[in-house]
Amino acid sequence: MSQPHPIIGNLSALTEYNRSRVVRALYRRGVCSRADIARETGLTPTAITKITGDLIALGAITEVGDMPGRAGRRSIGIALNGTGLRVIGVTFERSTITAGVFTLEGNPLDGAGSRAELSIGTGEHAKDVVARAQDWIRGRLEADHAIVAVGITIPGPYLPQDGRIAVVTQTNDWESVNFREAFVDAFAVPVVLAHDAGAGALAQQLLNPQCRMADSLAYLLLGEGTGLGVIDQGQLLVGAHGGAGEIGHISIDINGPVCKCGNHGCLERYCSAEAVRERLIASTPALVEDAERLSPIEACRALFALAAAGNADALDHVRELGRYVGYGCVTVINAYDPEIIVLGDLMAEAGEPLLAAAKAVVDERVAPALRARVRLTLNTMGGDEVLSGAVALAIEHALGNPTAMLPR
């Protein structure tokens, strides 16, 4: 979610926009000179001198000593002064709320109370779940005044103008929650809300070194649900109502099983954790012990462990899943033409057999001229990548509003 261009004629907005361009350059590159920033941003040296002077006075950036310059000249290095700043990331999933405190570089903060896993009880009312998340955020903000923003990811489709989720499979009552009312104005720091797959794409671009230079990428979230985040020319695509990227509800079989969204044969009915568990129980019930009593996530991880150990039946399941993922990738390539498609979340834990099966489908079904220009890869970020999306939302907001990027 790159910062929008300022309103013409609004001098304060233009000033903040140019400050954010400098801060973003420093975030991407680390220590660099004023001349380096001018070349990257296209701003004049005079403008850079003024902007960096203002940001140094605010404490947002700092000079860090001499560094080599062009033509043998010495330059003064400048760096983002984000060492003491922190953000909160919170992700709502179908069975769990995960939350944590992170540095501005995206690293988790150690220490008591800096991480929370809040299980959602069967039949628990959504408003009670939200209240528990609010309490945890409030407690962290009261304990740590260096926290400058909160990012929250939500399964979708999430409609930001309404503040509500349109439909979420395998859950009760989420459509009744207005997330904007519950979170945006509830705290002393800015709160940013977004669909989990879109935030995941932002995390790949912002925090994954392998994707930072990509202007166009797609992140295919394959977990309890199936979603897509797309960044094109540096901008996260959200759609007119926030529903862009709902690939999980694109039909891959018009005569397939009905989905909660009302469609038939949705990709999510084949690529989600629940779908994998259903196939496992139906076709090879003895393969994973007690699969009926395991959660979808537990059943998938047990299946993937068997596949990694070389079990032939488990590998067949993984390859079948990979083919369905490949059908999704074909749609992504034809619709968005990204440089990179990152396969992420739970299903990516199936590893190379899944990726190979997906690539085989793409090789077979995508025009060679397009196929040659897109790279499919598994997520390499490690850690909790869905939570990383929430963290990226908060960091992106801080980078886009450098004047406010100071501890309370």
UniProtKB/TrEMBL annotation:
Record Pfam families: ROK
Sequence intervals crossing the membrane: none
Xref: InterPro entries: ATPase_NBD (IPR043129), ROK (IPR000600), ROK_cs (IPR049874), WH-like_DNA-bd_sf (IPR036388), WH_DNA-bd_sf (IPR036390)
Xref: PROSITE patterns: ROK (PS01125)
Family named by the database record: Belongs to the ROK (NagC/XylR) family.
UniProt xrefs under PANTHER family: BIFUNCTIONAL UDP-N-ACETYLGLUCOSAMINE 2-EPIMERASE_N-ACETYLMANNOSAMINE KINASE, ROK (REPRESSOR, ORF, KINASE) FAMILY
Protein name, UniProt field: NagC family transcriptional regulator
Organism: Bifidobacterium lemurum
